[in-house]
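Researcher: I've got a protein sequence and the SMILES for L263DTV3. Could you write out the 3D structure of the bound complex as structure tokens? I'd like something to compare against our soaking experiments later this week.
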Amino acid sequence: MEPSLDMDEALRRALERFADHRQILIALDFDGCVAELVSNAADARPVPENAAAIAALAGLDGVDVAYVSGRSLESLRELAQPPQGALLIGSHGAEKDLGEDAPGLELSTTETMSRGQIISTLEEVAADAPGAWVEHKPAGAALHVRNVEGDELGERVLEHGRAALSLIDGAYLKNGKKVLESVVVLATKGEGITDLRAHTSPDAVLFAGDDVTDEHGFAVLHGEDLGIKVGEGETAAGHRIAEPKDLAGVLHLIAQQRSAARSETRPTS
Ligand SMILES: O=P(O)(O)OC[C@H]1O[C@H](O[C@H]2O[C@H](CO)[C@@H](O)[C@H](O)[C@H]2O)[C@H](O)[C@@H](O)[C@@H]1O
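Model: Sure. Here is the predicted complex with L263DTV3 in place.
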């Protein structure tokens, strides 16, 4: 199915301008942006039209495609199934796969101890709250409450988690959608995008994301860059689409615009 190209005029113009740059970087958040949010985090998959558009863009000259996710690189590779050559930032910027031999995330002894404390503390909190569960991650853990009955109770469980984590040295907190994460390596998606920019030297960067941690990514955009917030909520992004399935139209328009520009410049024989 062809993705819908229905979108507001300001976004369409911004995308056409973005697509005209010689070298572009398209950086995408995964959950809630490329993939719909789902109850079980292991069931998240790219919206098929998004996956197709990402694969098409990854094959174009002058285009770098990247995922910038809170997920571990392992989970991101398994669930997002990025196309060959895609660059990956995981764990909110703490893990990187820029296509070269990069050392994996290595924790110091103190960080390893703090991570262990984070996991056991959050497991205790989750044990008292039916529906809550803990995702173990390379730099910490995430307490999930999407399946806790009722928003208010879910909020109370997260609050309990925050209070318990405040007693652990070196445990940094990150709030997300129905999730509280605690990490021992402080990194942001902004740093991830800055690393990607240094690696790919684009003339312009597009970043799309839906969650509060994505605001760090929007904050490092400048000049000809383009930020797209997916869904509701306050944002520093300049543009907005309603839901993950609308991303396909955005990506498709960029691909279309670049193909049109190439055929215009191709010499006729
Ligand atoms: O930066 P992202 O790629 O958006 O990753 C952020 C977190 O996403 C996952 O949790 C979120 O998505 C789940 C699946 O839809 C949903 O059940 C959960 O409520 C959301 O918070 C993932 O599990 C986390 O590790 C990521 O940090």
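Model: The pocket of L263DTV3 is lined by residues 29-32, 37-39, 41, 44, 69-71, 135, 142, 144, 146, 176-179, 181, 211 (CB under 6 Å). The radius of gyration is 19 Å.
Researcher: Great, I'll pass this along to the crystallography team.
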